[in-house]
Design goal:
The complex is a heterodimer of chains A (240) and B (173).
Chain A: E1 7-8, E2 19-20, H1 21-42, H2 51-68, H3 73-76, H4 80-99, E3 102-104, E4 107-110, H5 117-146, H6 156-192, H7 196-236
Antiparallel strand pairs in A: 1-2, 3-4
Chain B: H1 2-7, H2 17-149, H3 155-172
Classes of the chains: A mainly alpha (240), B mainly alpha (173).
């Protein structure tokens, strides 16, 4: 029952370069699923939308709503593909771990890629770096620097600290939620597979928890995109 | 408790720098691909539909206005036509009554004329009859007188005598 990660340490003989092969696999699977869904939904597009196209358009409107609640649409339009991709990727990643966890030997191969802090923090860092990039690009370096001493100059250290805490909380919130969900699912599976009584006892909590995890997966993807847009609007909007 | 604690190490690997780089690369590739193949076409389509709907609404609005205008025109036309018909009927009625009066007038004149000529004819006939009667009576009375009186009397004297009688008789009447 002791699940290890299938690590490939010191890859290519480089001492600091480690790969978690399970993460690589799951990142690839999640990306592939999102890509296939996205392409499948947009083949055969019609002006009067049908079926899957309807769902995708609902998704676009949903992300539009998130962006629209944070900044005006003229600048927000720029971030629609980012928001959509983030949401789809994170949601699919979360779901991958809810549906099933796959263990080969003692190595855990199939899980949510978002149940790894490194990956969620990578996404978070990417988002925060993007906010700074767009902050400079859309408002100019001077306005961007001024943003750190607004409304009062002595807030500068807090503002700088905020950038790091934002990154950390954004990444770790997602990781924590999904990881906790996976642990509980693993425990329930462990109980269910230990004995007949355990199976009977664990079935109902298992179903309930999987439902809840699905909900959590959706909510966390939503929160991630929402906070991305909040941070983005702090940097690119004029009224902050 | 042993099982739970061992499970808590579930796939935990610490930070693997390779993962992070791969994740970043994957995400950027996914973003670019999706933008090109999914979001782009989808958003183009949605924009297209928006334009289409706006266009349709505009067209509908225009045709509705047009229809209303045409209806107004038709109503006006109808009203005009009705007035025209009314005036035509009115004219016809006027003309008819005029004609009626003319016809009656001319009939009356004609009748009057016929009456006058009839009267003249009657007069003539009567004069003629009187003349004939006079002649006959004259000759008859001559004959009678010559037979009865046997008195030689010239026809001229006789005629004079008869005329006198007849005139007397006419006055007596």
């Amino acid at each position: 029952m002791n699940h290890e990660a299938p690590m490939w340490e010191d890859a290519f003989g480089i001492p600091w370069l480690d790969f978690n092969l399970s993460n690589l696999l799951m990142m690839f699977v999640a990306s592939l699923i999102v890509f296939i869904l996205g392409v499948a939904a947009t083949r055969n597009m019609q002006r009067a939308p049908k079926g899957f196209q309807n769902f995708m358009e609902w998704l676009i409107d949903f992300i539009k709503g998130i962006i629209g609640s944070n900044m005006d649409w003229r600048t927000g339009r720029l971030f629609l593909p980012l928001g959509l991709t983030l949401f789809a990727y994170i949601f699919v990643s979360n779901m991958l771990g809810v549906v099933t966890n796959g263990v080969v030997g003692h190595d855990l191969w199939w899980k949510s890629p978002t149940a790894d802090p490194g990956i969620t923090l990578t996404l978070a860092v990417m988002v925060v770096v993007l906010t700074h990039y767009y902050g400079v690009k859309l408002r100019g370096g001077k306005e961007y620097r001024k943003g750190f001493v607004r409304p009062l100059p002595f807030l500068l250290p807090f503002k700088i600290l905020e950038e790091f805490s934002n990154t950390l909380t954004l990444g770790l919130r997602l990781y924590g939620n999904i990881y906790a969900g996976e642990i509980l699912i693993t425990l329930l599976v462990g109980i269910a597979s230990s004995s007949v009584l355990g199976f009977l006892g664990a079935t109902i909590p298992m179903v309930a928890w999987m439902g809840f995890s699905t909900f959590i997966g959706f909510i966390q993807a939503f929160i991630f995109v929402m906070l991305t847009m909040v941070y983005m609007s702090h940097k690119v909007s004029e009224d902050h | 408790m042993q099982g739970i604690t061992s499970n808590l190490s579930l796939g935990a690997s610490g930070f693997a720098l390779g993962d992070m780089m791969v994740q970043l690369a994957f995400f950027i590739i996914l973003l670019v691909l999706l933008k090109k193949f999914a979001w782009g076409p989808l958003m183009t389509m949605m924009k297209d539909r928006e334009d289409y709907i706006a266009n349709e609404i505009e067209t509908a609005e225009k045709s509705r206005e047009e229809a209303a205008m045409q209806q107004r025109e038709a109503a006006e036309e109808l009203k005009k036509t009705r007035a025209d018909a009314q005036s035509i009927i009115e004219d016809a009625r006027k003309i008819a009554s005029q004609q009626e009066r003319d016809i009656v007038e001319s009939a009356r004149n004609e009748a009057e004329r016929i009456k006058v000529s009839a009267r003249q004819e009657i007069e003539q006939e009567r004069d003629k009859a009187v003349q004939v009667l006079k002649d006959q009576v004259a000759s008859m009375s001559v004959m009678i007188a010559s037979k009865v009186i046997e008195k030689e009397l010239s026809e001229k004297d006789q005629q004079e005598l008869i005329n006198q009688y007849i005139n007397e008789a006419g006055e007596e009447r």
